Amino acid sequence: MSEATANTDKARASDLGPVERFIKATELDTRMLGMIGALLLIWIAFHIFSGGLFLTPRNLWNLSVQSASVAVMATGMVLVIVTRNIDLSVGSILGFVGMIMAVIQAEILPGMLGFGNPMIWVIALAAGILVGAAIGALHGFIIAYMGVPAFIVTLGGLLVWRGAAWWVTSGRTVAPMDANFRLFGGGPNGAIGATWSWIIGLIACVAIIAIIAMGRRQRQRFDFPQRPIWAEAFLATVGCAVVLGAVWVANSYPWPVGIVRRYAEANSIAIPDGGLFIAHGIAIPVLVAIVVGIVMTFIATRTTFGRYVFALGGNPEAAELAGIKTRWVTMKIFILMGVLCAIAAAISTARLNAATNAQGTLDELLTIAAAVIGGTSLAGGVGTIAGAMIGAVVMQSLQSGMVLMGLDTPLQNIVVGIVLVIAVWLDSLYRRGKA
Amino acid sequence: MNVHAGMTPLVEMENMSISFGGIHAVDNASVDLFPGEVVGLLGHNGAGKSTLIKILSGAYKRDNGEIRIDGKTATIHNPRDAKGYGIETIYQTLALADNVDTAANLYLGRELKTPWGTLDDVAMEAKSREVMGRLNPRFQRFKDPVKQLSGGQRQSVAIARAILFNARILIMDEPTAALGPQETAQVGELIKQLKAEGIGIFLISHDIHDVFDLADRVAVMKNGQMVGTARTEDVTKDEVLGMIILGKCPPGATPGPGAL
Ligand SMILES: Nc1ncnc2c1ncn2[C@@H]1O[C@H](COP(=O)(O)OP(=O)(O)O)[C@@H](O)[C@H]1O
Ligand SMILES: [Mg+2]
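Structure tokens for the assembled complex are given below, as produced in the milestone run.
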């Protein structure tokens, strides 16, 4: 019996073309591959049209930093949309929480703890996360337990929290931020330098290989079908190459000359003739986003909560009948979304070195677009964290590229809008083709 | 005459009523079930069979009536409560989470975990392969979301989920609707096996031929009311058909409030 199935499997495998066989062996997600391909096309096109300005370490590094805050929020938006909800309020929550964190660190704590106290950033961030969680809990409670549609609750939230952000300081901009807090925003100081970047890159490579090896051992233990060994080796190689390539790019972007000079003076280093090359390395906001992405992927795929989120999105009635506390799951998703908004607010406030009243305006649309371009289905039940983060990079690439090409803002908006619609249309074609 | 005389029924549903916006979907219906017994719940489409058992499985809140398990009043407010009493249900709609795979469906709400508290997908898949092998030996598509499976395969998944957790009371709402003759026969064997283990089974169908040979008793519903119950050895198929179609109770049956 099992021999017969093995034979038919083999027969079927030989019917497939080389590409299909490759994809079957590696179990790669074709949709994700398509998206990465599209991203690379966008990058190459912008590189050509901007006269070689796009694919430079400087631009790619900035792109990574600019994508970070929306990428963080997009990971939560995936869970929201997977359960057939929506969150229109994330930009306003970001604005409000950013304002709270700014006031705490710039106006309240320095008076109590002393200016530059190393605890300031910790307290400000913790307070922001608490406020974000509380806002998310409120939204989640109204949606899950009072039965008001998420669209309405978060549309209300969009107005309420934007207005609330204004009330905190009556519209005044708060600046500057605490020096330690500012590291969340990137910049020459907010990056970890060449050595640490290589170390983290190597750790990531070891982790990739370990995960692949462990998965294989697990499947061996239970005698399940396995990927061919060459496919495993291919995945490990590509994964490590991407990680090390990204580190290499981040390490190829030097500090600006002025900052190098000041740094050299402060540490009494002589600057050689050719100039002193000090690399940025990976930016801290990018590291934060990556850690958030890993944690969220873990939550989505390895915990019962994540399992329930997807089950609920696929068939809410079935989830309820299986005994899942669907309301509580929904509320937890919105709490998580609030926490992620707070983390995004920290990144964005630190990067601006200020909290302004308009901060995060329209971010809800970028976040939703990132999740949807990243393969999250508005019909519910389908979506990946990694896809949404790549979606955030796609959105940011479009904007950065058009800025480099000197397009006006209104034209940028037109292009982004059209791209979003086309992307979702292509996605629906893909899904129909697969079904 | 009554083989169960003196025994405590596993389940007693007494005077159950529920209405949806003025429609009495179930109207003062009573039925009971003994350990190791198969009760066939019969009636036309829309008679109220699914609604009645959904009260038992915790999916619907009744307006009236009492449920007793082992002779003691049971409080069932949601599907979790019902599962707590060992009640497992195969819903007519199957109620599968379409976008996750077979193992995730079998263990939905009761996942196996590793010592670190994370999902133990490998262990769940291993156990799923074992249980599915019993029902549908040719089934191999363990990695696919269940929405990509055939109707028969989906039904097998729903049945496997119900027998995975040592049910004491099994509710099967039209369990063979999507199955071919071979799989239907397999489910018949399964029912006999479970019955021998002392599990009480409600077997629901609108078609008398599906249940008559498997059931110890039949309970017939019409327009939300119980026409009557009868031991299958005391009545003929034609008499039961008369109960289903006309609501006419033959001499061998115990009439209910819905009898003519
Ligand atoms: N959730 C519901 N809302 C409104 N009406 C319902 C609902 N569930 C069942 N009904 C009605 O109750 C009656 C009995 O349905 P059902 O129990 O599904 O019948 P059966 O399973 O015997 O075919 C039907 O008239 C049906 O329309
Ligand atoms: Mg029914």
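Chain B touches chain A through 34 residues (CB under 8 Å). Residues B 49-50, 92, 173 surround magnesium ion (ligand 2) (CB under 6 Å). Further analysis is deferred to the final report.
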